[in-house]
Amino acid sequence: xxxxxxxxxxxxxxxxxxxxxxxxxxxxxxxxxxxxxxxxxxxxxxxxxxxxxxxxxxxxxxxxxxxxxxxxxxxxxxxxxxxxxxxxxxxxxxxxxxxxxxxxxxxxxxxxxxxxxxxxxxxxxxxxxxxxxxxxxxxxxxxxxxxxxxxxxxxxxxxxxxxxxxxxxxxxxxxxxxxxxxxxxxxxxxxxxxxxxxxxxxxxxxxxxxxxxxxxxxxxxxxxxxxxxxxxxxxxxxxxxxxxxxxxxxxxxxxxxxxxxxxxxxxxxxxxxxxxxxxxxxxxxxxxxxxxxxxxxxxxxxxxxxxxxxxxxxxxxxxxxxxxxxxxxxxxxxxxxxxxxxxxxxxxxxxxxxxxxxxxxxxxxxxxxxxxxxxxxxxxxxxxxxxxxxxxxxxxxxxxxxxxxxxxxxxxxxxxxxxxxxxxxxxxxxxxxxxxxxxxxxxxxxxxx
Length: 449
Known about the structure:
Radius of gyration: 29 Å
Order of helices and strands: EHEEEEEEEEHEEHEEEEHHHHHHHHHH
């Protein structure tokens, strides 16, 4: 049975504001003693009122603008009601029908991935499962509760795990360029949730034939895999789900709409709970926070602060520094590396060209935290210095190498270019000096003609 994989994504990104979303508690909770970054607001104690973090809201809008979203001039917070031990209030302050950002897109591998919404919410506490006095128990650390969390939701525009991984890497790169989040997945600052289903048949055209790509029926179910913290785990989870759901459909069944978790040790997903619908959360406007009204000038001001983004920087590096797309990709992958390279280019202006700089930087894997740009330029210049050697002396060594290795001439004349590289290496080995390799190459070619 022919079927099409349909995948949508939800990505949660923690913002690196100094304080939490609705209180003054420090948001720098990672590695801290449990329950030391809390107050009545983030613990949900009676009478405590939330006060929105303006910086977090602006950063949420910044992410939306970077993802080509429309920014409505009216927005509000809502209460998402559900009961779970890590949610002290019994509800989460989130956004439902009027989020800060709508209808964006991002391009991956020539495909346009639509972004349905980018909204703002608060993070939950963290459950810690331990054994105490021989008993398995669950403890709750509320340090994370209330940390600003941006959720980025796509339309179901993916049909394979490879594109999903590239999209997620691009989102991580963008938020790091914006400097609104470190998006460190090992610390839980970026969490990935794919929704996966299989459509057994395409929508039919009036002629009775399928309409092709983009026109497959959305199936009556979807399986969400929650809180994955690795790009490779997302790939594995999606591919496992495709196999699992294909087997169910091939037997005439329909996969259960549910939330599942990824277990790396077994390489499988496991059922966690039946998937909730929006109405199960009983959303309603947050009564303790008035709605937001923005002006066009306010949105323009936020947009004006957005730095050069990865795709734009990549194109500029290729054009301005005459780099290959491969090299430019490596240099713009991280904004810190890109800025370091450009500073080194300025320092080396007139002494080195950008290609020499890029080759040395990439091949030597420079640690930008330990080597200053000026020191890099100094090291490159030192590596390019050569010793002068008499041409007649050099020719004698070349002739000796060719005489001792007759296969060099035979292989070279057969078109084997690595024979020339071997000859260069042999001459350099005998001389034990750093000489001009282009001059050496020309002299060897003269002997081989």
